[in-house]
Amino acid sequence: MGEASKEPEEWYAGKVEIDEQFKSMFRLPNELCKGHPKQAADAKERAYCWVEVSDERVARFYHGENWIPVNRTNHAFLPDKYFSALGAIERHGYSRHILMWQPKGYNIAKRRAAAKASSDRLKDSKEKIKEVEKSGAVHLEEVSNSGGYGLTPGSDPVQVDWDGTPVETSTDDE
Question: What is the pTM of this model?
Answer without folding.
Answer: 0.59
